[in-house]
Design a protein that fits this description.
- The protein is flat.
- The longest helix is centred in the first third of the chain and has 54 residues.
- It is 28% helix and 11% strand.
- With 292 residues, it is of the alpha+beta class.
- The strands form four sheets. A three-stranded antiparallel sheet has the order 3-2-4.
Length: 292
């Protein structure tokens, strides 16, 4: 009797665990793994560059960007929209010219048909029904100009062509790369992080593991700690500080200004390229299946 273990290879049955192990080693089947900490963006990094922000700004939805990166993105999108709009207008002009040519050709066809009808009014001798005429007529489907109607894959001029896909009018709205909502440069809110002051720390700010803290409670900020931005001052505080201190009188503790509910913006924490933070962190890669 064989030993009951996943790595046992003395059994007569090719078990599920053996097959899964072989698939992982050979690169077959669906490979699934949980994204590690190294694949998750830090809370103070730009959503575009994935690097710590020099001039951090956030959108009204709480997504953090470096000001230089997001402005460059907006300018690039506007140029791309202008290019697509120009192509759309050019395509529309071609379509208008084509319709004009079709209308002109249809008008000429009607005039030609009218002239043929006028000529047929003139009396003509009745066609003979003798067998000699039947011998000259053909039953071929490519005579009398009918070869232009039938498609042919051997003659380029008669090859059927696919209908041209009509271009849609491009939307002139620039969308946020993270939320997909409209974004404007004037809606960006500059923020400031409160740096942790440690006299014994000799490393540069970008090389530190602990860089910033809450502007009110001085709690260390991290991806695991929900944070918010106060629009009136741009300071970053923890949600615990918001719930226990700020929501009582709705006053910004850093400058004494009155706050509204929309002035407290939840800062979106570091996510991955696969999904949002703490949700669907399992990555899957589908590959050819190895048959047992």
């Amino acid at each position: 009797m064989t030993r009951h273990a996943r790595n046992c290879t003395a059994g007569a049955v090719y078990t599920y665990h053996e097959k899964k192990k072989d698939n992982k080693a050979c690169g077959y089947g669906t490979l699934q793994s949980r994204i590690g900490k190294d694949s998750v963006k830090d809370f103070d990094c730009c959503c575009l560059t994935l690097q710590p922000c020099r001039y951090p700004v956030i959108t009204p939805d709480g997504y953090l960007y470096d000001k230089e990166a997001i402005l460059e993105y907006i300018i690039h999108q506007k140029k791309e929209i202008a290019r697509r709009t120009k192509e759309y207008e050019k395509d529309q002009k071609k379509e208008a010219d084509r319709l004009t040519e079709l209308a002109k050709a249809e008008e000429e066809s009607r005039a030609q048909k009218f002239m043929e009808t006028e000529k047929s009014i003139v009396t003509k001798p009745i066609a003979s029904t003798s067998s000699s005429d039947d011998s000259t007529s053909s039953i071929s489907n490519v005579t009398n100009g009918r070869e232009k109607v039938l498609p042919s894959f051997w003659i380029p001029a008669l090859t059927p062509a696919a209908d041209k896909i009509k271009m849609k009018k491009p939307d002139k709205t620039v969308l946020c790369p993270m939320s997909g909502k409209p974004i404007k440069a004037k809606d960006l809110i500059p923020i400031q992080f409160t740096e942790v002051k440690d006299p014994d720390e000799k490393k540069a700010l970008i090389a530190r593991k602990v860089r910033y803290m809450c502007a009110v409670t001085h709690d260390v900020l991290s991806n695991s700690l929900p944070t918010a931005v106060l629009r009136t001052s741009g300071n970053v505080v923890t949600m615990e500080c918001v719930e226990k201190l700020i929501r009582k009188d709705m006053i910004d503790p850093t400058n004494g200004k009155a706050l509204k509910e929309e002035d407290i913006i939840l800062l979106q924490r570091g996510g991955t390229g696969y999904a949002s933070t703490n949700e669907k962190l399992d990555a899957k890669v589908k590959k050819p299946v190895m048959m047992a």
